[in-house]
Amino acid sequence: MNSRLFAFFLLLVGAISVVSCIDPDQTQEVILERDKEAIEKYLQANPITSVKQYSEPIEGFYMFWQVSAKPERNALLRGDTVRVNYTGRTLDKRVFDSSIEQVAKDNGIFVSTRNYQPLKFPVGLGFTITGFEFAISMMHPGEKATVIFPSRLGYGSQANGTIPANSPLIFELDLIDVKKGPNSNP
């Protein structure tokens, strides 16, 4: 009986310890609301010219097409391979990555050993962050768009290189082409 009581006591103390370590200013809901406010403020100060738009304000996701193309085929399917040029920025307009060599040089992030070329990856298999992949899934070859999304669709509470934790992200995307995968019907 004493061992059960002792185990229950340890479990209770452990649960209280975990709950007391949670910072109420860092809950997912609070972070999302803070991200959405920052994104709205950014968009008010930096309007993005577009030929079409898509938004989900509740999620904090905004997409603006600078070039729109008529779809040649059906929408992207899981396993289709895309090639996309991109430039990633934080809301303070700092470039943290680009597949374009000149953009990397112009923003002081050039790495001489890197092979600058379009990113190539299969859609729907988790090779990129959620917001990036969702934006690509809404595009057709030849389209260019700017997408802005909250940190939970990016790197979340984890810092990544020069990107601070809980950072909303902006990507300029240029979908070059799509190679249909095994889920496509000819």
Automatic annotation (TrEMBL):
Family: Belongs to the FKBP-type PPIase family.
Origin species: Algoriphagus aquatilis
Isomerase in keyword set: yes
Acetylation as UniProt keyword: no
Enzyme class: isomerase
Ranges of residues in domain PPIase FKBP-type: 79-179
Protein name, entry field: Peptidyl-prolyl cis-trans isomerase
Domain of life, per lineage: Bacteria
EC number(s) on file: 5.2.1.8
GO molecular function: peptidyl-prolyl cis-trans isomerase activity
Signal peptide (from-to): 1-22
Reactions the enzyme catalyzes: [protein]-peptidylproline (omega=180) = [protein]-peptidylproline (omega=0)
Keyword terms: Isomerase, Rotamase, Signal
